[in-house]
Structures
1.
Amino acid sequence: MISVIIPSYNSENTIIPALTALKNQTYRGEYEIILVDSSEDRTPQLVKEQFPEVRFHHFDVKTDPGTARNWGIQMSSGDPLLFIDSDCSASPDWIENIVRVHQKYDYEAIGGAVENGNNPKNSTAWAGYIAEFREFLPGHPARLVDHIPTCNISYKRRVFEKDMFNPHYYPQEDLEFNYRLRQKGGNIYFDPSIRIYHRHRETLKEFFTHQKKIGQITSQMLKIIPLQGARIAKSKILTLLSAPVLPAVKWFKTLLVFCKIYPKIVFRHPLGFLIFTMGLFLWINGFIIGVFRESE
């Protein structure tokens, strides 16, 4: 038995393609789909009407993804446990490839690549893809990594016998969880054949607001997790001194990765890169706010 767990909030525009893709998998073994939802829109109605086979739990109040995933884990009976988001669609061989790699390796976590699932003409969506998923492009080689986001990752069930996602670190509770997993000696394996298609924000306002939020959360997480940039995030003086340079560094690193791994995006979607560049000013603004805001 395989368990697929999906957190959901106000997903009426994406939940039908997400669940349809999971129903139409090439995998022929037994698997269950668990949706943990706290929507205020038509998501519960759509799921009950069109996907009665999905195991469904609804919270009456808005619930963060970490809490929803923890609830789904408790509902599940499979091994491994597969995680995807309600704004993502899995490739037809998604489950099949995850199971294949789990059978090949005894790694604690296995995940894969992220493709842009929006209309390819939407430049703002490309900016979101460029800003968030340079480390998870399908052109990257299979390898051990430090982190894969929960929109496309799976875990051996034993991982959750003594641990769960910590909602306190939302919206990067997956980064914090994977850091703790690695500290305990666990392995996280990236395989580009394991693909999902992620829907991104399509308006400039949504994109810029999200970039500011991501910047703030990034600096707050770097105060806790000793990743690259942690020394800067822990010092207000270093942050102010580095602020003019950090967006340029992030831009240059992103450009290098895309030129090497996915060069056609650079040439086919220059407006997407321009919007991404503009978003970096909101990102650094959020980063500074996160540094100066005391941890709760």
2.
Amino acid sequence: MNSQIWWFVARSSGIIAWGLLTLSICWGLFISTKAVAKASRPVWLLDFHRYLGGLAVVFTGVHIAGLVADNYVVFGWSETLIPYASEWKPTPVAAGIVGFYLLLAIEITSLMMKHLPRTLWRWVHRTSFVLYFMATYHGITAGTDHENQWFRVAALASVNIVMFLTIVLILAARKARVQPARPSPRSLVDAAARD
């Protein structure tokens, strides 16, 4: 067995977790902007979003376990779970740790969504933007693959896609607030009958 197997597990699972997080955020924004069918929103669209988020949690756990099992850079559980406990690239590693806790908070509140006030769930869910940028910063600055040209292109492309979808969501929400609700044909008939 290769002596660097855990290092490869940590690296690959970290990149996969970041990719799944990116896909989950993009898919959530895609659903939120109503870019999909406006009349009906099939359940599988939301289930796929949840599935991507859950897989991101699993691969982040594999990433952390791989770092602890590897012996190239010594990471114990405290260095992987407590911000600034690591002496190796403390700020980028801390960003990854805080991002992990945000990921857990988002996933747990999403699983408990029916039992939580909608405003609390929405507030926690909006931290996914902070999570995404912290995870991207962590991957670019703490990861050893930051020199990889393909990773740089993927990171730049994902940031642009997330920003574009976020702008579309903001503009769609603003447009919905500005436009008055259209009266239904039935309400127009009822109003005419009363006059």
3.
Amino acid sequence: MSDRLSHLDKAGRARMVDVGDKPVTHRVCVARGEVRMAASTLARITTGNAPKGDVLAVARLAGIQAAKRTAEWIPLAHPLPLDSVRVHLTPESGDASGEARLLIEAVVATHWRTGVEMEALVAVGAAGLTVYDMCKSIDRGMSLEAIRLVRKSGGKSGDWERPGEPPPVGDG
């Protein structure tokens, strides 16, 4: 790995990396995060009793939409032709403290010259923020936490996996 930051020119100014000469390869990234909330909030989400409607469906769509528009969120990100975006939301019931979690996983794939790490991370963030928005009237104490890249494949740097992470949900 180079110590040189690719988004800086020789004078140290921010720039968009030129990927024009890089080969097109198949790239897949998996990102995860979670929304912590009261167990009663998660129960309302999973039973369809949240004030604003079907939280899981809307959050899934928000994640997909955000991945497709990542270059509008992240100034130096390239607009990418995405092959697929999958967002999985997995409820994890409450513990003795009354806290529960909604686990979020985004799997993003492309055939392109640069990776989809940012698209996967943005998908997780948007899905989690959507959950918060749709449930804040019943649980302002929710928190969006631990957004992280857990796996990537393809490109010059090859495959990478965060130690200790379980395999992707579904068809990851």
